[in-house]
Design brief:
about 100 residues; mainly alpha; three-stranded mixed β-sheet; globular
Length: about 100
Amino acid sequence: RRVHGGGMKLIEAAIERLSKHHMRHIRAYDPHDGEDNKRRLTGKHETSSIEDFSSGVANRGVSIRIPRLVAEKGYGHLEDRRPSSNCDPYSVTEVMVKTCLDL
């Protein structure tokens, strides 16, 4: 049986942790230490700026997006919109887990 208590609090806590390690994640999210993402993360065309961390509900122009349905239900997932298309998914997963779980 699934219990849906505290979901948004946990998501918000993870976002707070992610905000403190923005540039470390930028470097881990593309194979050239963030250089590839400089061209993509401009703050235009539904991307956030590579220089700034941001989050929001149903906003595609942020670093971390909370889908509208997740915010309405109070539980679910978050989306990190910063990894590049040529990222190493294992490196991204490692840095996300370590940061979000405070390891």
